[in-house]
Amino acid sequence: MKLHVEWSKPVVLKDASRENLIYKADIEKLPNAPGVYIFGRRWGRGQFEALYIGKANQIKGRVNGHFNNLRIMQHLRNAKNGKRIILAGRIVTKPGQQLEKCLKMIERGFIRYFLSEGHDLVNKQGTRLRRHEIASSGKHLKRFFPRLMYVDKAKGE
Predict the structure, then answer these.
(1) How many other CB atoms are found less than 10 A from the CB of residue 53?
(2) Secondary structure of the chain in HEC code, one letter for each residue
(3) Which of 40, 55, 121, 141 could form an SS bridge with 103, CB 3.0 to 4.6 Å?
């Protein structure tokens, strides 16, 4: 199945401690459509770390509700330096594609991708990766391969 997500411009989170919140954002810049959204941080020259990934039938309303979710907001605040942002992507379905099924597949795909890249996601439920971890050590290791690698488990392992 081919899935398509149309991303809008990132929305910056701002400090909202004076309003008894941790963060706030200009929600009107988010699409009021079904899709996926990513809370994350951006720093340096194009560096990005995803911190929370979600799906929604109405992105704008769902993201707005997260500003009252202490667990998510504290995770964003406790992350390393960088500008906190929200990325929102509207799903573009084709005839015959079921919206809910597509949303779940896209959310799960992004969560698995960012977990495999080592991002510190707060939401991992339902995405347990069945894999083996291979740790390497040695003096000249960095030149050839990473210290940690993951290999997907085959069925029955």
Answers:
(1) 27
(2) CCCEEEECCCEECEECHHHCCCEECCHHHCCCCCEEEEEEEEECCCEEEEEEEEEECCHHHHHHHHCCCHHHHHHHHHCCCCEEEEEEEEEECCCCCCHHHHHHHHHHHHHHHHHHCCCCCCCCCCCCCCEEEEECCCCCHHHCCCCEEEEECCCCC
(3) 55
* Amino acid at position 144, single letter: F
Pairing of β 11-12 and β 131-135: unpaired
Give the pLDDT confidence of 4-28 residue by residue, as tens digits. Answer: 999 999 999 999 888 888 899 999 9
Residue in the block written with tokens 């769902």 = 62
Q: Is the pTM of this model over 0.85?
A: no
Tokens of 50: 């995803």
Nearest in space to 56 (alpha carbons), one of 86, 78, 34: 34
Contact 137, 120 (CB under 8 A): no
Q: Are 14 and 23 in contact (CB under 8 A)?
A: yes
